[in-house]
Amino acid sequence: MSGGDGLFEVEPVEKKQPQGRPASVDKTFRDFDPHQVLLLPPSLDDWLPEDHLARFVADLVDEVLDLSPILANYTEKRGYPPYDPRLMVRLLIYGYSTGVRSSRAIERRCVDDVALRFLAADQAPNFRSIARFRRRHLDALADLFTQSLHLAQKLGMVKMGRVALDGTKLEANASKHKAMSYGRLVDKEEQIEAEIAELEAKARGLLADAEATDDAEGQVFGVDGNEADLPAELDRREKRLAKLQAARAQIEAEAADKARRHAEDKERRRQQRAGTSDEQAVADAGEKAAAKARPKPKAQANFTDPDSRIMKNSDGAYIQAYNAQAVVDEQHQVITAADITTNASDALNYTTMLDQSTANTGIHPKQVLVDAGYCSETNLEAARDRQLDCDTSTFMATGRLGHDEQVLPAPRGRIPKNATLKERMARKLRTKPGKAAYSRRKAIVEPVFGQIMTCHSGRQLLLRGEDGARGEWRLLAACHNLRKVFRHAGTTALATLAG
């Protein structure tokens, strides 16, 4: 060691390389300078490859889709200019197509995601603007479903030779713990009415005391209060009672409507067997049944989303949900009809969904495949009539097999004259053509539900109310169809369709 007292000699230490910077090697790397200043401004067109989904969505919105129903809502010239509807539709279609459905998530992705920055032209709408746009134009956005279907038809992707109808339970944006049964509603309503009466008596006593002295009145009602004011505790209970009464009225109205429809249907079938027709008798039977209808004690209403219902999903769990229905074409798994119902049973949707599919496509399918959830006397009769009127053959499962049941052999000989419609359908499914046709059901419709649940994150709805749920389900179905179009034809087909 040089200098100092020179008692010890220390070897000189080599200077270490700075941490994080690679040591010199015999290799040439590409230039990398994060602080490089660009000579020219970057072009949005250079951000994505030519075959990217975002480019397809951009061309679709700008050149193909009809946005006139959305544009027609903008009639007020005053105020701050809103975002271009094309921008917002681009974000929603791409977001729903890739599983980014939350308005807050879309706002974040407009900064973090290159594809959404490309679609938004480097703008970042606030999540409130996105949510308001979706809610305001929900009907027009739901109508994109029919536009996506017609686009697939023009590309030859919809044949309507064989379709499958099925339903799936979608979780509502509400907790099942916010639901209350009819029996508990009645008990709770009586309890709160008693509490309100007690509080009102107490309030009257306080008012009487307040008349004697202004100080006591000020302590009870506040400095600016008056005799008409009620304590906050009483006000809360009255609001709670109003919610309970509204929920009770909803359950009672639904029970009456269900009884009315059942009685009218029963009366129509009786008249059909007798060869008569009297609509006034049908209406009278319905009104009589509705007047006598009483809700079941376990019938429930939800305070967060009153239109949703507790339903059992495919896993056997009870959830607050809507029943989403879809008709799917076999050729490219394009959805031809999509709707939402608040009834957990699928049986009520056979005729309405097939009619909707025909109205959307203009074509009656040759074959319809449905599972046992749709099997009912009414639907079997409707399937028979559809075969006669539209030449549409229905393959409807008549029930699940028991644990020890075996599939019966294919029938031989003529069908017995006294065979019921259910027996005829069961016999039809046991034939070789019937087995071959029905075996395709799961391969047609089940993958569609799986794709919507996973690729589109569509297991839970974001919008509340039956109308909101229906609009969102149809928007999900539209995005599913558009992804099918993108994978089948890509961006090149849009130029032809736009022309």
List keywords for this structure.
single chain; 499 residues; alpha/beta; Nucleotidyltransferase, domain 5; six-stranded mixed β-sheet; two-stranded antiparallel ribbon; 19 helices; 8 strands
What does this structure look like?
By secondary structure, this protein is of the alpha/beta class. The chain folds into three domains: 44-136, no CATH class; 158-175 and 307-474, Nucleotidyltransferase, domain 5 (2-Layer Sandwich); 178-302. Helices cover 51% and strands 9% of the residues. The protein contains 19 helices and eight strands. The chain has helices at 53-64, 68-71, 85-97, 103-112, 114-119, 127-136, 138-142, 144-154, 182-212, 214-221, 232-274, 279-292, 350-361, 377-390, 421-430, 432-438, 441-454, 466-489, 492-498, and strands spanning 162-171, 179-181, 300-302, 309-312, 318-329, 335-341, 367-370, 393-396. Strands 1, 4, 5, 6, 7 and 8 form a six-stranded mixed sheet that branches. The chain has a two-stranded antiparallel ribbon with strand order 2-3. Strand 5 and strand 6 form a beta hairpin. Helix 1 runs parallel beside helix 19 and helix 4 packs across helix 6. The longest helix has 43 residues, at 232-274. The protein is flat. 29% of the residues are buried. Pfam families: DDE_Tnp_1 (PF01609), DUF772 (PF05598). InterPro entries: IS1182_transpos, Transposase_11, Transposase_InsH_N. Residues 312-482 form the Transposase IS4-like domain. One of its GO terms (molecular function) is DNA binding. One of its GO terms (biological process) is DNA transposition.
